[in-house]
Write a structure and sequence with these properties.
It is built from 4 helices and no strands.
Length: about 140
Amino acid sequence: MMNAALKKFINRIEHYTVMALLLMMMLVIVVSTVELAIMLISDLTNPPLMLFNITELLDLFGFFFMILIGLELVETIKMYLDESKIHVEVVFLVAMIAVARKVIILDAKTQDWTTLLAVAAVILALSLGYYLFKRAHRRDKQEG
């Protein structure tokens, strides 16, 4: 069994590490948002004006989703700081956003059928896992 001083020291190191991760993630999100704004303005001001080609559009959508994933990770870190536990639902949401991003930027014409099958399997697995988690959580609330 750990003595109290060692446990307190480990908890403090863990807390500061999580805080450092949170600050770094926020920095990445701010810098990425500025970079996205620069990309958007650049794409809109280059001829043809106010029009995107499909590659630019897919790049922008991919960037939007990456920022959303970052924001969800920040939410996960904040919940961990508040309650010292990882929320499974938020992890599922981050994974689903990441897969949605991959599906949006994926060029199905250039991918092997096994890659498309693997992406479909990941989508099904995440959907089923999220559904089962929500169902179990709902049942626990009803019983409690």
